[in-house]
Amino acid sequence: MSAAPIATYSVANAFDRVASSYDELFTRTAIGRAQRSQVWTQLLATFHRGDRILELNCGTGEDARFLAQHGVSVLACDVSAAMLEVAPSYSVLAERAGSIEYRQVANEKLFRLSPKAPFDGAFSNFSGLNCVADLQPVARNLAALVRPGGRVLICLWSRVCLAEILWFLSRGKATQAFRRLPGKATARLGESAIAVSYPTISRLRRKFAPWFRLESRRAIGLFVPPSYLEPWARKHINALVRLEKVDRMFAAWPILRDLGDHVLVEFVRCPQ
Question: Is residue 224 part of a domain?
């Protein structure tokens, strides 16, 4: 008997459907923690106590809570109403100096946040912007929200993932190994599917110009594998810990920085 096809949903509906289980599927997994810890290191190096930051695709608020605990105030936005219902249910340390405000806003409609501007910076973690067909309007709207000199961190699925290629080639699955190369694909999210894009770095640079200058980039998940290898990771925790250490050593190296499961890109808002 053939498996039932996976239905394709809008981004909002797809994330609504997994909101109650999202943290168990991704956030709290061994791979999820290993990759997120690398992003958190860069967040703390970029944003500081007293900053006011805009977060896109906040999901259940894991990153917003982390920043709030370090004295950063966050306006956390997501298109999924169900995700935003889950987010406030988590407690945040009472001694935090920062604060969190949640808002349901699609990436394509960031202009609605103009009364909240200016922000000291912005970020988007783990592939939310891969779900946007055209990033140029997003960049334009961000430019109106982020002060000159402010920094924007964006974590996206990479066009080329070394760990994915090696994994599938070792199993004789060449089509899956190079599935990202065309630049567009369908990604599975629970029992749903969503259309995603895999922009190159040069394309990202063009989409964010002239408002932002590309400052740096680094791989996230260079040797730490993609999330669908969680069953392997749970059986090889010590190996995963070693892979994360190697990731931190080589993530910013030329060539290697573009070969992770994700790439963390840092833009700086240009003077007006």
Answer: yes
